[in-house]
């Protein structure tokens, strides 16, 4: 699972929990109003708040949850299935290219899709964002040979490559 996938999964889980809480608040709020009217003003006020939050919030929260699930499918198509054009993704997900364009733009803005440049039609890897190869354990990144230490740099005796010590 990629970092981007875990970010959207975290947001989906969070939205699911909030949606469930809003749904429960609506159901619990009704008896709280009745019991509060008979016994406690504070309980009645909390019941009213729960009902209002549940009544107005629940539909919006569940719609947001569904939107995130749909967005996750687009993110997976790009990051896991390596689909890079609106047409490919639209065909895979059985939806319109216009919808895919909007979802890709939203996913990029929320940083669910990273490492790509998007021109409105095609995602291309951002070469500037790709990690640079590092010298690991004094090995040449070109041929894998053991590097020799010189004054201000490393030198490969096999291919002649030179590397900064930084």
Unreliable runs: none
* Topology pattern, helix = H, strand = E: HHHHEEEEE
What strand line-up does the widest sheet have? 3-4-5
How far apart lie the N and C ends?
Answer: 32 Å
Structural class: mainly alpha
| Total of domains | 2
Q: What's the β-strand tally?
A: 5
In terms of DSSP E residues, the strand content is 5-15%
Our Rg estimate from Cα atoms comes to: 27 Å
Helix content: 55-70%
Indicate the overall shape. elongated
Largest sheet: 3 strands, antiparallel
Total of DSSP H or I helical runs spanning 4+ residues: 4
Q: From the structure provided, what is the oligomeric state, counting identical versus distinct chains?
A: single chain
**Average pLDDT rating:** 88
SSE topology:
Blueprint: H1 3-38, H2 41-79, H3 86-93, H4 97-109, E1 116-118, E2 123-125, E3 148-149, E4 153-155, E5 162-164
Antiparallel strand pairs: 1-2, 3-4, 4-5
Helix pairs in contact: 1-2, 3-4
In short:
58% of the residues lie in helices and 8% in strands.
Features:
166 residues; 2 domains; three-stranded antiparallel sheet; 8% strand
Q: How would you describe this protein?
A:
- There is one protein chain.
- This protein is mainly alpha-helical and 166 residues long.
- It folds into two domains: 124 residues, no CATH class; 33 residues, no CATH class.
- It contains four helices and five strands; from the N terminus they run H-H-H-H-E-E-E-E-E.
- It has a three-stranded antiparallel β-sheet, with no helix packed on it.
- Strand 1 and strand 2 form a beta hairpin.
- The longest helix is centred in the middle third of the chain and has 39 residues.
- The model has no long low-confidence stretch (mean pLDDT 88).
């Amino acid at each position: 699972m990629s970092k981007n996938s875990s970010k959207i999964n975290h947001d989906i889980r969070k939205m699911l929990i909030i949606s469930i809480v809003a749904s429960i608040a609506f159901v619990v709020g009704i008896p709280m109003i009745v019991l509060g009217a008979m016994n406690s003003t504070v309980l009645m006020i909390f019941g009213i708040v729960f009902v209002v939050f549940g009544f107005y919030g629940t539909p919006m929260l569940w719609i947001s949850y569904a939107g995130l699930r749909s967005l996750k499918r687009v993110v997976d198509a790009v990051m896991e299935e390596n689909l890079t054009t609106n047409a490919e993704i639209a065909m895979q997900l059985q939806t319109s290219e216009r919808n895919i364009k909007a979802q890709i733009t939203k996913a990029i803005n929320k940083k669910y899709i990273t490492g790509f440049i998007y021109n409105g039609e095609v995602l291309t890897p951002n070469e500037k964002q790709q990690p640079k190869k590092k010298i690991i354990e004094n090995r040449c990144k070109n041929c894998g040979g053991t590097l020799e230490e010189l004054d201000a740099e490393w030198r490969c005796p096999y291919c002649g490559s030179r590397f900064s010590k930084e």
